[in-house]
User: Fold these one by one.
Assistant:
Number 1:
Amino acid sequence: MEETRKREAAKVNNALSLPKLLGKTLKNLFKKPSTVMVPPREIKPAEGYRGIHRVNYDKCISCSLCAIECPALAIKMVTIPETKKRYPEIDYGKCIFCYRCVEVCPVNAYEVSIEKPAPETKPVIIKETPLEWYKSKKTQQTSSTQQSPQK
Ligand code: SF4
Ligand code: SF4
């Protein structure tokens, strides 16, 4: 008997609180948000920040040392089919920006920058591919041969 009375009282309470809840919801809908919007701005990295690093493939001697030393396994040696030479390909998605590769390269083939790989500044560069470098090099060579005057 007591149980039934309690249940009935709860039902009445719920029915009364529903309009209250609706009122609160509507009020909150038109209220100013309590959070503060941070204005979008580009944060300049500090000097010495380890950013995107690229391989100067013209300098690279294909020793594979950078790939061997990379602790994140972010460097894969890619073979150029025409020359059979292998060049490093960096996956910035895996890279932890420790710069071990930069330190170990015997010919200083790595060019460093403070360019951030974060998506808020520029689109993420996923890979630096030696194949693309080789293709553009070939194209440049072909166009310069075509442009040079014939004897
Ligand atoms: S910076 Fe470090 S993690 Fe990134 S590619 Fe070089 S060695 Fe690998
Ligand atoms: S360590 Fe330097 S020279 Fe050797 S493969 Fe890497 S970029 Fe090329």
Number 2:
Amino acid sequence: MMDMKLSSDSQYQKMATYRSVRSMLDLFYALKLSRKDLRVLVGLLTVHADLNRHVTFMQVCTDELCPLCQEVEETTLHLLGKCCALINQRLEILGSHYLDYEDLAILHWRSLLRLAKVSKRF
Ligand SMILES: [Zn+2]
């Protein structure tokens, strides 16, 4: 029983180490991004991207609407997961026509950044 616990602890340790190394590699890759891309990515991940909903809240602009579809306020979720103007690009890059926060949360940040760049909103 004790050996089994040690074995599973050891296995967990290996998995944790693997995840840590992978996260560090991802971070190093991220740091090689241009300053602009890194800024866009951080904005998307923190939901503080320079999209109309946020810049209106910051009193930088007065129009919350999405300039791509003109249907609803432009938020991070709308741009990445809902905007009908990006439906084909979303399917090609993220694998689905529409996505919710839960779906977006499990996607790799490179894919989110790629869709954001294709949207030409940054
Ligand atoms: Zn839209």
